[in-house]
Amino acid sequence: MGYDIERFVGYVNEGLLCSICRDVLEDPLQAPCEHAFCTACIHGWLVHHSNCPEDRQAIDVSVLRPLYRYMKNDLNRLQLHCKNREYGCEMVCSLESIDRHERECEYSQIPCSNAGCTIQVERRNLDVHLAVCEYRSRECPNGCGYTILSAEDTQHNCVAELRTELELLRSEMICRVEEAKHEMESRLDSQRRHMVQKESILQNEIEELKSQMSRMMSDVRSLMAAERQHRQELEQAELEKRELMELLRGLQKDCRLSTTEGSRKPTTFRPLTRLESAKRKPREVTVI
C-alpha cells in the first residue's frame, strides 16, 4: 500500500500514483510498459495475475525495475504531514525524510516496556507512564534487594529471598571459579607445551653451536700449526741466507787476494775451491 494522498501538501502528479491502490507510490517498481506500482501492490497482484493492471501487457516479477531517476527525485521532493498528525504532530517534511522523522517522532505510539503491560503511550509520555505503571519493577522497601514485579510480590519473605539470592550468588561464584580454574589450567598446559617445544629448539641450536665451535677450534689449531711451521721455515731460510752472504763475502775476499798475488807470480791456486765446497754441501732453502 502507498502513502495516503490526503497527507500530501499541494498537487501530486498522476504519474506518481500507484496504478493499483491509487495512493502515492511507496517503494516503487516500474514495468516495461512504464506503469509504476508500490512493491507490495504489484507483488500481490502478480500472485493471481500475469499482466499489467493498466494495459494488460504480460509481465512477471523478473521484468520489474526501479523507478526512473527523474521520477524518483520528483517523488522524494513531495511534502507530506507526519502520520501522527492526529495525535498533535505538526511536522511537514519531504517524502525522502519522512521515515526518519516518524521513527523519532515524539507523538509516535509505542508500547510500555514493562512485561505484562499492554498500554501504548506517546513516546514523549513514556517516562511518565513508566513511573506509575502497575507492572513496573521496584526493589523491596525492606532492603532485601528483591525486585517487586506485582502487588502479590509485596508480601514476599525477605529472609527466604535473601537466602535464595545468597545461594544464587554462591552458585554463580562457584561456576566462575571453576571456569577460571579450567581457563588457567588450559593456559598452563599451552604454556608448558610451548616451553617444551622451545627447550627442544634451543637444545638443537646449542648442539649446532657446539659442533660449529668444535670445527672452528680444529681450524684454529690447524692454522696455528701451519703458522709455526711457516715461521720455522722463515727462520731456517734467514739462517741460510746469512750463511750464504758470509760465504759470498769470503769468496769475494779470496778472489781479491788471488788477483793481487797473480799479478806477482803465476800460481796454480784455485780461488773457487771454497765455492765448490759450498756447492757440494747439501742445503735446503725454502722459497717464500
Question: Would you write up a description of this structure?
Answer:
- With 288 residues, the chain is mostly helical.
- It is built from 6 helices and 9 strands, in the order ββαβαββαββαββαα.
- A 3-stranded antiparallel sheet has the order 2-1-3. Strands 4-5 form a two-stranded antiparallel sheet.
- The C terminus is likely disordered.
Q: Please, how many helices?
A: 6
Helix content: 40-55%
Number of strand elements: 9
The main sheet orders its strands as 2-1-3
Q: Label the overall shape.
A: elongated
The average pLDDT value, as a whole number, equals 84
Largest sheet properties: 3 strands, antiparallel
Q: Identify low-pLDDT runs.
A: 267-275, 281-288
Radius of gyration: 57 Å
What string gives the helices and strands in order?
Answer: EEHEHEEHEEHEEHH
Name its key features.
single chain; 288 residues; mainly alpha; three-stranded antiparallel beta sheet; two-stranded antiparallel ribbon; 6 helices; 9 strands; disordered C terminus
Quick structural summary:
The protein is mainly alpha-helical.
Describe the secondary-structure layout.
Elements: E1 28-30, E2 36-38, H1 39-48, E3 65-66, H2 69-76, E4 79-81, E5 92-94, H3 95-104, E6 109-111, E7 120-122, H4 126-132, E8 138-139, E9 147-148, H5 158-262, H6 273-280
